[in-house]
Amino acid sequence: MGKVFARPFVLLPLGVVFLVVGLFTALNAVGAARWGGVVAEGRTCGSEASGMCLVRTDVTVDGPHYSRRDAGDDWDLEPASGRAEEVSLPDRASARLRGAEVTRGVMLSQPDGDVVGLEAAGERVATTWTGTYGALQRVGLGLLAGGLGAGLVVVALRMRRAVGWTGHEPVQKHGSAAVALPVVLGFVLWMLPRFIW
User: Fold this and answer.
1) 19 C-beta neighbours (distance < 10 Å), count
2) pLDDT per residue over 41-85, tens digit each?
3) How many helices (H) and strands (E) in the chain?
4) Which one, of 137, 142, 140, lies nearest residue 71 by Cα?
5) What is the dihedral sign for C-alpha 48, 109, 121, 93?
6) pLDDT tens-digit profile of 151-168?
């Protein structure tokens, strides 16, 4: 880090920002898991689309657009009217849909319009940001950001005791493991769903 970023008065607020972002990201895992349950149940909205239910829209399915292993394959869902949506599906589900040569399906959306799944070839598939897959990714990203933030706060407080608020020293001298360990753990958790699904 440069000398400007190796000062406690910069590291402390930066750490707090990362902590808050990490916390909100991890808390979003609850919503992802709940929407995964809604997709699994296939709970559709009635005449009034509100709450936790699915809006079903017939779509033309186009994809995947690349074949390398990634978080999931990108598929384009094109309704007869309205704008097309691009969704990412877990690898195994994407491979099954690709093998079935799917061209038609039903897009599953939240009442506010966010796409949470696809129904095609006789199966319902949640996107990579929904269900257990999405929940694990959000917890991993939250831990990554929150861990980085907590590490920066610890380093800033240690550095402040050593050199004051405006002095600077190498971050490594004040506990780079406090920064690195949670970040590595968060990264591993963020990547884990890619190897399971």
Assistant:
1) 19
2) 888 887 776 778 898 989 988 876 554 444 456 788 889 887 888
3) 4, 6
4) 137
5) negative
6) 888 888 887 776 666 666
125 - beta bridge partners?
Answer: 118
H/E stretch holding 14: helix 8-41
CA angle 16, 20, 25 (to 5 degrees): 145
- What are the residues whose beta carbons fall under 8 Å from the beta carbon of 82, sequence distance 6 or more? 57
Are the beta carbons of 15 and 153 closer than 8 angstroms? Answer: yes
One DSSP character per residue, 49-85 reads: --SS-BEEEEEEEE--S--S-SS-EEEEEEESSS--E
Which structure tokens are listed for 181?
A: 């360990």
CA distance 125 to 41: 11
